[in-house]
Amino acid sequence: MTSPTYDLILKNGTVWTVGGPIETSVGVRGGKIVAIGEDGDAGEVIDCTGLTVMPGVIDSQVHFREPGLETKEDLESGSRSAVLGGVTAVFEMPNTKPNTDSAEAINDKLARAKDRMWCDHAFYVGATTENAEKLAELEMLPGTAGVKIFMGSSTGNLLVAEDEHLARVLRAGKRRVAIHAEDEQRMIARMGERVEGDASSHPVWRDDESALLATRRILKIARETGRKIHILHITTPAELALIAQNKDIATCEVTPQHLTLAGEDAYPRLGTYAQMNPPIRSGAHRDGLWHYLRQGVPDVLGSDHAPHTIEEKAKTYPASPSGMPGVQTLLPLMLNHVAEGRLTLQHLIELTSAGPQRVFGLRTKGRIALGYDADFTIVDLKKRWKVEESWLASRCGWSPFTDMALTGKPIGAVIRGNRVMWDGALANQAIGAPIRFDSVAL
């Protein structure tokens, strides 16, 4: 009998299959997983001895800044950061210049991404008061991750703040809507809480109630309109307690930076480099997020990769912009939390692959199983290393986690059977392609 022929075999690794971790081989043909635990000949063999093979990590919130803000980042540099950090797919956000709020803008991003983005990708369309009635059509465009609402002002000028307009948006369409939940009116009223030159006043201005009030409002509107929502970058335990009571209509995200940084240390040490929306809050807030994470309330991890230049971040608060890079450090930070016993690798996989697959209806991604895309993130769970500036690929050139000592490192990224990154080296060409969703026709 002739041995099976594969395009690629990953062998000798600890592979996280649907049934759990086993030391086995995985065979790939035509970009799909076609065999688990079977030997055979292959055009390429990757020896994963001593390494762990996870389903490809999906970062469902990044800002790659193209078009219009390429001094901070672009689709090529942002996606290069992604794969160097072991991320195989991203959802990119709409607050670019111009905003991604039309079919033309979505198609422009898809055209820009072709042959330039290193990872697979989808683009959010931004909701506005002007395009609300068009969103049902726009969210169904191929390569579209869905609709994104900014309830509170952040980077850019996408804003839908009033309940009547929020309801208009939620009534238009059927896919899950992503929400930046901060209450615009409360933040306007509290602008006097900002202290010039003191970034630690950022979470005083954009306080717990700003987040909780917006989350409470959007849950009510979602309930009234019958629309499912996904609340991004949760920062307060009170929000997670509320979302836990509304899981039939709401999923949510937490970020590695909110699980890692505490304001008492971050603002004195990092100043405006710790400034983001919603803010880095106290150690008590961080511990509260971990409590609800262990209770299973957050569905996914997103980096909220939002780079700004060093020159911009060096401005005196509050003239400094909010946001920090994070796509390249998402997995390393969380692997370190695994190494230190804060969560299991199984839970991390749920948050970075199976969770996004379930929440967003990804067609053939999110698990190592026959017929799925051959997307793998290969990691060394025991590798001790330090985040060095020379490793960072983001055009912004900095990270709040530079010089941080970590245990656990991404070693490789394979996307649809293509080895895109291995041990810090990139493939010869970018092969990222649009992500397919169950709800969107091909």
UniProtKB/TrEMBL annotation:
Superkingdom per UniProt: Bacteria
Keyword Ubl conjugation appears in the UniProt entry: no
Matching InterPro entries: Amidohydro-rel, DHOase/Allantoinase_Hydrolase, Dihydroorotase_CS, Metal-dep_hydrolase_composite, Metal_Hydrolase
The keyword Hydrolase belongs to this UniProt entry's keyword annotation: yes
Matching Pfam families: Amidohydro_1
Residue span, Amidohydrolase-related domain: 52-420
GO cellular component, one term: cytoplasm
GO MF entries: allantoinase activity; dihydroorotase activity; metal ion binding
One GO process term, biological-process aspect: purine nucleobase catabolic process
Entry's EC annotation: 3.5.2.3
Top-level EC class as recorded in UniProt: hydrolase
SUPFAM superfamilies in alphabetical order: Composite domain of metallo-dependent hydrolases (SSF51338), Metallo-dependent hydrolases (SSF51556)
Listed cofactors: Zn(2+)
Keywords: Hydrolase, Metal-binding
Role summary: Catalyzes the reversible cyclization of carbamoyl aspartate to dihydroorotate.
Family classification: Belongs to the metallo-dependent hydrolases superfamily. DHOase family. Class I DHOase subfamily.
Name of the molecule in the record: Dihydroorotase
Organism: Sphingomonas montanisoli
Organism lineage string: Bacteria, Pseudomonadati, Pseudomonadota, Alphaproteobacteria, Sphingomonadales
